[in-house]
Design goal:
With about 425 residues, this protein is mostly beta strands. The protein is built from 3 helices and 20 strands. The strands form 2 sheets. Strands 2-3-4-5-6-7-8-9-10-13-14-15-16-18-19-20 form a 16-stranded antiparallel barrel. The radius of gyration is 23 Å and the shape is globular.
């Protein structure tokens, strides 16, 4: 599938003379191809086996957009992506929606819409617009891209003038999401399900190979204030998710030998995720900073067992970019992910237990210090290289660090990324 998408992109590149095509109101076609490399010391990160170096980081996308009238436009993007065990270069419809721009202060979108969240989520795939290889992983975690990038539903948006106080951009949305078994969140929830099945029966063979996650409610919004101070933006974002987690039928053997057929059902909730955002551009300097908190909860429906998991996380980052040459920039970054508290079910029939103090401090945080150099070879080509020094392993990767003994984890470790991209 990736070969087919690359072939389409190459043809389009030839037609557009490497600069995209814009046929008035008829059709605009743009795209990108990128290849990355990661090497880490101490811990695998982002993709499996990164301690030995990995090039399982690539993507290719093509975007089509058109204006059917002065108010109505359509757009879609196809994406082929490899991110370790996720994606595996299958081509998917990444997003596709219709946009009706009634007035500057009111517009409507419906379809598979890019999720408004924070400063950069809606432009996270436009590589040449960001100075780093990836956006800050404390906020824009690539492992949870399927949760963050788009949803099926509708939204309203607009820009409201505030006179001498500047103006305000707003967005409110509602919808749901679909996932497949290659998405990392489903792999993580499969582990949660299997862990609970083991607690329920004591049978290590009580496990499932897949889970189904159906998002019933997903809604939220953003508000950004474009202040009277030139190039200073302040904003906030919020969303909430209610989902149903189910497993295939599994035959469980209880400690007394009884065999019970069971379809495990659980409510998965993110009661809130909110962000506060700041962006300030002064001459060649760009400062971007965001702070957020998120709560995750899982409750088993079967036999009214109730809540088995409840965790609150805190995240933050700040980036300072200096454009010191026309084609070159340097970015210093700091990001943090921290566990505020965690409660988990230790035994069926007992209330969940606060296990925060049972977890070593260095496994409850991840402090990441990075430096990135970006060079724009031409209008279409760019190359980036970055180095990171990390303290702690919290949320480094629930998938990559699966079942790694604590003694094999490193408290202090490093990782290095390089990426070359072509955009048209």
């Amino acid at each position: 599938m990736k070969k087919q998408l690359l072939a389409i992109i190459l043809v389009v590149m030839g037609i557009t003379t490497l600069f995209g095509i814009d046929m008035g109101n008829a059709l605009s076609v743009h795209g990108f191809v990128s290849q990355g490399y990661i090497y880490s010391s101490g811990n695998d990160y982002l993709v499996p086996d990164s301690k030995n170096g990995s090039s399982e980081i690539n993507e290719a996308g093509i975007t089509f957009s058109t204006h059917l009238s002065s108010k109505l436009s359509l757009g879609m993007q196809f994406l082929s992506r490899d991110f370790g065990d996720a994606g595996n270069n299958t081509t998917k419809l990444d997003w596709a929606f219709a946009d009706y721009h009634y007035k500057d202060w009111l517009g409507f979108r419906f379809g598979k819409i890019k999720t408004p969240m924070g400063l950069y989520n809606e432009i996270r795939d436009i590589d040449f617009l960001r100075p780093t290889v990836y956006l800050s992983q404390s906020i824009y975690d690539e492992q949870y891209r399927s949760f963050l990038v788009a949803f099926q539903g509708g939204d309203i948006y607009g820009n409201v003038p505030l006179g001498n106080a500047g103006d305000m951009d707003y967005n409110a949305f509602i919808g749901n999401m679909n996932f497949d078994q290659s998405d990392i969140p489903l792999k993580i929830y499969k582990k949660v399900a299997n862990s609970f099945l083991y607690q329920l029966t004591g049978d290590i063979n009580a496990s499932v190979n897949s889970v189904n996650l159906r998002v019933n409610d997903f809604y939220g919004g953003t508000v950004f204030w474009n202040t009277p101070i030139s190039s200073l933006r302040l904003g906030g974002s919020y969303y909430k998710i209610n989902a149903k987690l189910t497993t295939p039928r599994v035959n469980l053997q209880t400690p007394d030998g009884t065999v019970l057929p069971l379809i495990l059902e659980a409510d998965m909730k993110i009661p809130h995720r909110y962000l506060g955002s700041l962006e300030y551009i002064v001459g060649p300097f760009t400062l971007a900073s965001e702070y957020g908190e998120q709560t995750n909860q899982i409750s088993v429906v079967n036999n009214n067992i109730g809540k088995i998991f409840d965790r609150k996380d805190r995240m933050f980052y700040t980036n300072l970019t200096y454009q010191f040459m026309e084609k070159m920039s340097a970015t210093a970054s700091y990001s943090s992910s921290e566990l505020v508290n965690e409660k988990s079910l230790l035994a069926v029939g007992q209330p969940i237990t606060d296990i925060t103090d049972m977890i070593p401090d260095w496994q409850k945080h991840r402090y990441d210090y990075g430096l990135t150099l970006k060079y724009d070879i031409s209008f279409n080509w760019s190359i980036k290289a970055e180095a990171h020094s990390v303290d702690g392993v919290f949320l480094s990767s629930s998938e990559v660090l699966e079942n790694v003994p604590e003694n094999d984890l490193s408290k202090n470790w490093n990782y290095y990324l390089a990426k070359i991209s072509f955009n048209f």
